[in-house]
Amino acid sequence: MGLVEVECTSSWEWFLTTLRDDLNITNTSPFTIMSDRQKGLINAVKKVFPDSEHRHCVRHLYQNFHIKHKRETLKNDLWAIARSTNIPTWERNMEKLKVDSEEAWKWVEELPPNTFVKAFFSDFPKCDMLLNNHSEVFNSYILEAREFAVLSMLETLFYKMMHMNVGKLKEADKWTGTIYPKIKKKIDKATEWAKKLDQGYTGRK
Hints:
Blueprint: H1 9-22, E1 32-35, H2 39-48, E2 53-56, H3 58-65, H4 72-83, H5 87-100, H6 102-109, H7 133-141, H8 150-173, H9 181-194
Parallel strand pairs: 1-2
Helix pairs in contact: 1-2, 4-5, 5-6
């Protein structure tokens, strides 16, 4: 967490440099950064984390996309493009968008696909998230404190973070296994679905 007067290229460079040095990062290639498309941040990431994959949150992309392209069909097209897990599917979804609106297609065509389309993500991070929900949730949690004077703001942030951490620890104490309950439900659901699958053969037995 950093405290700056304004979000700009220089403040982002300071923050990212401090983060890199504090974590003793000498090789930036294993790291993935997700953000909105703020130009100052994009430039700072290129300079301080030059070999990292820089993804853009699709929700923020859609907010910009929606300014000129408001139809629900176009919204669904954009999300289908972002969720494409292979190039043929991405090409089909891009073509569908072009049919629905060539202007919207031109807008998306200008975006580097490796910043928001699953099919073009590096497979090194083992993560294909399209949204920076964690940051947005935390930002809304501390939103009130951002309006305070500096000392009051820092004290409030400290209290809120400690309160949140204690709450998470108490919640974790109730777990009965080693897997997070929401993930366990997903695994159990997938397991039940897999039980219904039949073995088949291709070619000769």
